[in-house]
From TrEMBL:
It comes from Lachnoanaerobaculum umeaense. SUPFAM superfamilies: alpha/beta-Hydrolases. It comes from the Bacteria. This is Alpha/beta hydrolase. GO terms for molecular function: hydrolase activity. Keywords: Hydrolase. Gene3D superfamilies: alpha/beta hydrolase. Coiled coil: none annotated. InterPro entries: AB_hydrolase_fold.
Amino acid sequence: MMVSSSALIGVSLLNKIMSVHAVSKNLLEKDDIREFEWRFGNIKYRKQGHGNPILLVHSLDVASSSEEWFKIVDELSESYTVYSIDLLGCGLSEKPFMTYTNHIFAQLICDFIKVVIGKRTTVISSGNSSSFVISACDNDNTLFEKIILISPEKLSNGYLIPGKRARTYKAILSTSIIGNLLYNIAVFRLNIKNDFYRKEKFTKEMLAKCYEAAHRGLSPKSLYSSLVCFYTKKNIKFELSQIDNSIIIFEGKYNKDASNIIKEYMKVNPAIETIIVDDSKKYPHIENEEEFLNDLNIYL
């Protein structure tokens, strides 16, 4: 019992040290951060520029935040009012202990446009955030002008559902000591460079910000458990087929699933337009921001 107790105390201290160290530099803090008081938790965002509104929605991951848009947000704000949001469970926004679902994020997008922006908005989303942006538009398409999806995930991923093994793993992650240790190990092994064609574009500062984002807040592991156990997945094929708003997909030339993903989306909604950005993989807005912005300005 003494050995077990000592081990648990040691693991608990290790978890605490890792969390404190990760957030010690406050790399995500900025003077112009604003707050939207939402019913599931306070949402942090930035507002820049003047003109028609654009909402930037980063990819949904424990290491993600509005910092994903740092290469393009200043230039966009020269012609538009740009809102860059930290999703619930991400970045500086609150991270409540709860199960995160596609419906929650879809409702967040709708509520944010209604309450904060107050007019029809062009939404630019990254990665797996595409699914709940599509769901949000299907819920109320009057809130949306255009939808621009950057490297959206496969539609077939929407068929993934939590099984018995996933529910068991989620229960283990919810424990205070062992769950925190498993989460810290998983985050420590994050290899975001694999999603970059040009590895040098992913700097040490970007890695530090991702690591900080993954450790901030009350319960960052809650989003992680919801993601890896498929609670955020949803089949959006029907919603996608019903949308009349303009939808444009941007893909990196070297994203190996790009052609299949484009075919999937266009089969469901043939009106979708697509752009391929050279010298990039999953994050063309970071790896080749000049070409990305040139192509983007054609559609805005």
